[in-house]
Amino acid sequence: MGRAVAPGEPVFLPEDTAAAIALAEEEADTCSSCGLPKAWCRDNEAGRNRFDVAESFCWATYRVGLRQEKQGKEKMPEAQRRAYQVSPRFRKGYEPEVTAGLDLD
Predict the structure, then answer these.
(1) How confident is the model at residue 59, as a pLDDT?
(2) Does residue 41 contact residue 31 with C-beta atoms inside 8 Å?
(3) Phi/psi of residue 37, nearest 5 degrees
């Protein structure tokens, strides 16, 4: 939890154990597919009518994927493939304002 442990003190306090157990229980109750609580996404009474789908398109991810295809990443040796890193950058002149999307007055 970020505390300094002095010599002779236990590394984990009862609060740490309680927090770890609570996290494990929450993770066990979370759907690994959608990330929602299982009680919500697997409720057969409301079923599919409960959910709608929000769609969006990430141009940065698309550009990274195009670059990886162009580089022929699937043809690289495994060690090279693991080391290969591609990340999106803004093109000069297309940088957004630093506060864009933050709804600041």
Answers:
(1) 94
(2) yes
(3) -60, 140
Which amino acid belongs to residue 8? Answer: G
Phi, psi (deg, nearest 5) at residue 12: -110, 130
Tokens of 26: 């929450």
User: In this prediction, what percent of the chain has a pLDDT beyond 90?
Assistant: 13
Tens-digit pLDDT profile for residues 20-52: 888 888 888 899 888 888 888 888 887 778 888
Cβ partners under 8 Å of residue 51, min gap 6: 41
3 state DSSP class of 28: helix
What count of other Cβ atoms lies within 10 Å of the Cβ of residue 68?
Answer: 15
Q: Which residues sit opposite 30 in a β-bridge?
A: 37
pTM of the predicted model, to two decimals?
Answer: 0.45
